[in-house]
Amino acid sequence: MNISILTVFSQIYDSFLQTSLIKRAQEAGTVSFDIQEFFSFCEPKERIDSPTFGHGAGMVIKPEVVQKAVEKQETKHGKAFKIFLSPQGKKLDQTLAKKLSQKFLETKHVMLISSRYEGMDSRVEEYYADESVSVGDVVLMGGDVPTMMLLETVLRYVPGVVGKQESVEYESFSGPFVDYPQYAAPVEWNGIKVPDIVRSGDHGKVSEWREAKAAEKTVKGHFEWLRSHLMTDEQKSLAASFIPSHYVVLMHDEILLEKGRVGTTSVASLDIHDIARSSRTYGLKKYFIVTPLEDQQKIIQKLLSFWDSDVGKTYNRGRHDAVSRVCIEPSLQDVLKRIEEEEGKNPVIISTSAQESDLSNPINYYDQEKVWSLDRPVLFVLGTGRGLSEKVIKKSDFVLLPINGFSNFNHLSVRSAAAIIFDRWFGISTKGEHS
Ligand SMILES: C[S@@+](CC[C@H](N)C(=O)[O-])C[C@H]1O[C@@H](n2cnc3c(N)ncnc32)[C@H](O)[C@@H]1O
User: Fold this and answer.
1) 296: how many CB neighbours lie within 10 A of its CB?
2) Does residue 58 sit in the same domain as residue 114?
């Protein structure tokens, strides 16, 4: 496999190519490199770059220079699979690296094209790129470190580059979990002991322990990766065991009404059903409905007793299952007490609001790790009427940012808001698997 690298400064690669596995891969004939500077494709005294058209500072690499370089390399080594390094490219992760390694294996010639200054004339990438890769949402001075990063990641998948192929397959980000903790001698270092199980010699137990630790570390530190990855049912339930218990409460008391009054609202059967079904789908433990009004409590009770009856169970088992997690309480205080009795810890209270003005301690929908690190159960508080009263908001540890789209209409029903919130908080997207 031949890899051409087109760059402004070739000397950056000197020690990179002469070190460790990449050096050995060349010695073994698995891969060879041909590094060319853009300057070699210019006339004497000609510049490789020119000022951008339009206002705004900066120099871009000229298209004819890149063209000459590409054509020369393809004449030498054959048609290439061309990868541009660009902050606007596809973000490099292990899934993309694995896909690219297939391309590296299928194609005899891969060309990595990296830029500097303000970048390249945009037409070059548009015309030539088979792939455009970014190493993250950061802007570096040039594409050479990204090129090296891409090579270090992709070449690990090329047989013969890394000694044991097995060590590539079972690493962070090669599946849904990050790597498990690894230990070697001494058994105790700086007062920290290697866990006994790791040295027990019981391979089955060690594997189980490693899988559990990997799942725990991923849930607590890389939840975004986890939920964008396909999991087996076993992996899913293992990961779920490290997510703290979540509860939701729908408030029909302590609610803002017209003219700034605070009071109660009436229950709606759709909210009871739909939030119960969403709670069940996303694994919330209980769905509390707070109303101090006895007649309202009776309405809920009547509905619940139907779904709890034999007729209800036979009519729709799933609905029975969802609705069975609904609990009626007269106040938020009672809800907190119930959770504390069940969990032995008081919950982190996350209120929801459609008003930006309520955001004294805001969190967004992707702050799970911050909340879960508190090692307490979590309670989402949903409002009815015109929203939660100031007293409830003040009692909360956090207030979720209002749900927004690209319009300025902001009037979701509470059951729709609940489903969106749960999906943003726990939803599995598997986006990485299908792109
Ligand atoms: C200073 S950057 C140009 C940034 C460009 N004007 C922009 O805002 O998208 C110069 C070059 O460094 C490389 N580069 C910078 N950041 C990168 C990243 N995150 N991933 C891949 N390449 C990057 C690219 O080759 C890029 O053309």
Assistant:
1) 18
2) yes
